UniProtKB/TrEMBL annotation:
Every Rhodanese domain range: 55-139
Record-given protein name: Molybdopterin biosynthesis-like protein MoeZ
One Pfam entry name: Rhodanese
Gene3D superfamilies assigned to the protein according to its UniProt record, in alphabetical order: Rhodanese-like domain
Source organism of this protein record: Candidatus Methanofastidiosum methylothiophilum
């Protein structure tokens, strides 16, 4: 999976990702509901995720936000893979571990999760509402 080139992104998103213009990506994706409706990843709720956190040896969390956002606030033991670039190779190395993808609001991770599902990875889940949902439930 090449998340940058295998997806027909809304105008400006691919270029913003390439420039690491996080604010532009967030702004465009905020209104991209029609675009996102074509993707159907396996989702996991924050409540289900809380249960999974009790068994970290069988869980890998990938945070698809930019490095600065990840460094500012991230889930303990998560791995930063900005915008999901190179994610397939990392997932392939993990075997049967349960994989959780997150991003700002679950939109980029939904695209990545769907692409991975279509490649045959059945152990990949997207955290519903991303870090926004996680932060709102873990205050």
């Amino acid at each position: 999976m090449d998340i940058l080139n295998d997806v027909i992104w809304p105008n400006g998103v691919k270029e913003a990702i390439e420039r690491e213009d996080v604010e532009k990506v967030k702004k465009i994706m905020k209104t991209a509901d029609d675009f996102l409706s074509q993707f159907s990843p396996q989702m996991i709720t924050v409540e289900e995720f809380k249960e999974d956190l009790k068994n970290l040896e069988n869980l890998v969390i990938f945070d698809l936000r930019d490095k600065k956002s990840f460094d500012d606030n991230s889930i303990k033991n998560s791995i930063n893979v900005p915008f999901g670039l190179g994610l397939t190779e990392k997932v392939r190395e993990l075997g049967t571990k349960k994989i959780i993808l997150t991003c700002f609001a679950g939109k980029i991770s939904s695209v990545a999760g769907d692409l991975l599902r279509k490649e045959g990875f059945s152990n990949v889940y997207v955290l519903q509402a991303g870090m926004m949902g996680y932060s709102n439930n873990f205050k």
